[in-house]
Structure formats: C-alpha cells, structure tokens
Design brief:
CATH topology: Tetrahydropterin Synthase, Chain A
Largest sheet: 5 strands, mixed
CATH class: Alpha Beta
Oligomer: single chain
Shape: globular
Number of domains: 1
CATH architecture: 2-Layer Sandwich
Number of helices: 3
Structural class: alpha+beta
Strand content: 25-35%
Order of helices and strands: EEEEHEHEEH
Helix content: 25-40%
Radius of gyration: 17 Å
C-alpha cells in the first residue's frame, strides 16, 4: 500500500503535503457546571480532563513535523495554564466537552500552524471512557457559517 500525500493550504497560504499525524496528550484538573443542562452535571463538580492535540503534516528538513517541545510549550501557555485548577465556566459559558474541544481548537489553530503542518483535531476526555473530537472539518464548517451570516447583515 502506497502512502498518500494529500495536499491542503495552510495558514500561510502554502500548499502542505499531509502524510503523517503527530499527537501530544495533556491532562488538567478543573471544575465546572452545566447551567443549560438539567441533571447531575448542572451542579458544581470537577474532572481530571485528558486532551489530545493532533497535527497533520510532513516531516521538515530536520525529519520532524514539529518539535514536541514546541507543542507542549504552546499548549501549556495557551490552554493548560488557564484551565488547570480553574472554574471553566469563567472561560467558556457552557463548558461541555464539545465546547471545550472547540474552544481549544479555535485558540490553537493559528498558533499550531507552520509551513509543513497544521492543527487537525482536538480530543477531550471528560472521563476515561467518554470523549469528543473537534476536527478541522468542524472548524471550517463553523467558519463558513459565520461568513455567510456576516454576508447577510
């Protein structure tokens, strides 16, 4: 089976060959409550969240898509430092796993983009066996819907 090199344009307008996925996982402890939900989760409670950041790209001249340390530093500064031991409702009004994954993707999308890679997905586990994935297709659909709304104003 041959390896497929798919192409897409990245943030810089450069065509990027996508041949590999790079993944880095993180954890953070946080509290939240779901104010628009009727059930146990409307009460204040906490989780040890697990989060996976996925980049797609092709290795550069150093043989890497991107240095894992760079991913760790960016995610640490932009997400973990704000979410760890925090009340997430102060950041995201209805902090479901779905909304957390979307928020993180939108926050990191421009920061985790290079000439040979781009952010492809964010997965958030609320428990060991329950997670949600927000991917680039989701992001592009939301972006398109927003631009259509703006055009109709």
């Amino acid at each position: 089976m041959a390896l497929c090199f798919c192409k897409e344009n990245n943030l810089y307008g450069n065509e990027v060959k996508k041949s590999m996925l790079l993944r880095r996982e993180f954890t953070f402890d946080a509290a939240h409550n779901l104010v628009s939900y009727h059930g146990k989760c409307e009460n204040l409670h906490g989780h040890t969240y697990r989060m996976m950041i996925e980049l797609s790209g092709a290795p550069d001249s150093e043989g890497m898509i991107v240095d894992f340390v760079r991913v760790k530093d960016i995610v640490g500064a932009e997400v973990i430092s704000k979410f760890d031991h925090a009340y997430i409702n102060e950041i995201i009004p209805q902090p479901t796993a779905e909304n957390i994954a979307r928020h993180v993707f939108e926050r990191l999308e421009t920061l985790l983009a290079g000439p040979n890679y781009s952010l492809s997905a964010v997965q958030v586990w609320e428990t060991a066996d329950s997670s949600v994935i927000f991917n680039r297709d989701d992001f592009e659909k939301i972006k398109l819907a927003k631009s259509r709304q703006e055009a109709h104003k």
